[in-house]
Design goal:
The complex is a heterodimer of chains A (113) and B (117).
Chain A: E1 4-7, E2 10-14, E3 19-25, E4 33-38, E5 45-50, E6 56-59, E7 62-67, E8 72-77, E9 86-93, E10 101-103, E11 107-112
Parallel strand pairs in A: 2-11
Antiparallel strand pairs in A: 1-3, 3-8, 4-5, 4-9, 6-7, 7-8, 9-10, 9-11
Chain B: E1 4-7, E2 10-13, E3 19-25, E4 32-38, E5 44-51, E6 57-58, E7 67-73, E8 76-81, E9 90-97, E10 106-108, E11 112-116
Parallel strand pairs in B: 2-11
Antiparallel strand pairs in B: 1-3, 3-8, 4-5, 4-9, 5-6, 7-8, 9-10, 9-11
Classes of the chains: A mainly beta (113), B mainly beta (117).
């Protein structure tokens, strides 16, 4: 019930391509869905987040698509760059309750030049 | 943006010793801080929720006597790994929520790599 399932585990994309990472959740009480980027040996950094009252949010090259009925959300990275190579985590939180952030399993993205 | 400072960034200790990790919110007050543990190439696993002035809430399977958490002020939480053993070697990350913010953002520290010999 508390799990957030993320796929794929790893992803290789050519420079300029679109990277797509998917997540699914079960707990309908989740109401906040952020995406984090993590480089080796560093803490995760917030990229973009969405709440279930909208179906899409775009910030620069990063877009979240949210499907409330399917309980799925995805991250799209447009015009992927080698500097985007990192591990990406989706997460979900029930902000009205404990506020704990539950992370997906992570996706290692490699953008080839 | 809000900054969370975590110290030390890396620590190597002998088996049986205790290690303290500090997590500070530098420019905001954090009533709630979270401690995570991350093994290589794995996700962040929540260990405990730390609330200022009260006892921490531990996730199932996390030994509270081994991982002591203190949240003595609105800007500081500490995690002490007591009697550390090699299996405790991991990347520990704290996060904090801004007390004064209306959004849900969590700000993460840069992590502490613990290696127990």
């Amino acid at each position: 019930q508390q799990q957030v399932k993320q796929s794929p585990q790893s992803l290789i994309v050519q420079k300029g391509g679109i990277s797509i990472i998917n997540c699914a959740y079960e707990n309908t009480a989740f109401d906040y869905f952020p995406w984090y980027q993590q480089f080796p040996g560093k803490g995760p950094a917030l990229l973009i987040a969405i709440r279930p009252d909208v179906s899409e949010k775009k910030e620069g090259r990063f877009t979240i698509s949210f499907n409330k009925s399917a309980k799925q959300f995805s991250l799209h990275i447009m015009d992927s760059q080698p500097g985007d190579s990192a591990t990406y985590f989706c997460a979900a939180s029930d902000t009205g309750n404990t506020g704990k952030l539950i992370f997906g399993q992570g996706t290692t993205l490699q953008v080839k030049p | 943006g809000a900054v969370v400072s975590q110290h030390p960034s890396r620590v190597i200790c002998k088996s049986g010793t205790s290690v303290k990790i500090e997590c500070r919110s530098l420019d905001f007050q954090a009533t709630t801080m979270f401690w995570y543990r991350q093994f290589p190439k794995q996700s962040l696993m929540l260990m405990a929720t730390s609330n200022e002035g009260s006892k921490a809430t531990y996730e199932q399977g996390v030994e509270k006597d081994k991982f002591l958490i203190n949240h003595a002020s609105l800007t500081l939480s500490t995690l002490t790994v007591t009697s550390a053993h090699p299996e405790d070697s991991s990347f520990y990350i704290c996060s904090a929520r801004d007390r004064g913010a209306t959004n849900e953002k969590l700000f993460f520290g840069s992590g502490t790599q613990l290696s127990v010999l």
